[in-house]
Amino acid sequence: MKKLIKSIAVLSLVCLLSISVFAKEKSKKVVFHNDVTVNGTLVKKGTYKVVYDETSKEVSIFNDKDLVVKSAITLSPQTSEVKRSFLSTKQDGDTRILTGIALEGEKEMVLIDDQANKLAKPQ
Description:
Blueprint: H1 2-21, E1 25-32, E2 36-38, E3 41-43, E4 46-53, E5 58-63, E6 66-77, E7 86-92, E8 95-102, E9 108-112, H2 114-119
């Protein structure tokens, strides 16, 4: 009986570890052609590493290895694979606000949660 319980415990641990190993984190280099604002943080035009995690529902934007900003997201499935990365923005006065990111090769659009951005503090 003890052997069965130990086997079940080990199997459970292996399953939990395998789930964390296969986390749904994806990343790509993306060129921002214009300055944009995310969570009140200005992201200047340039090349950034965009990382989003399907599990935590967050996107992080890195300049080299430095975190620039993090935001809550919603994923919007697309009918086909994105051919090249692009940004979706909206204009609010003189400010261009990032509303979404499509990453090349993916079949979903990363939508920046508007409500989360209203409540979030700059990073």
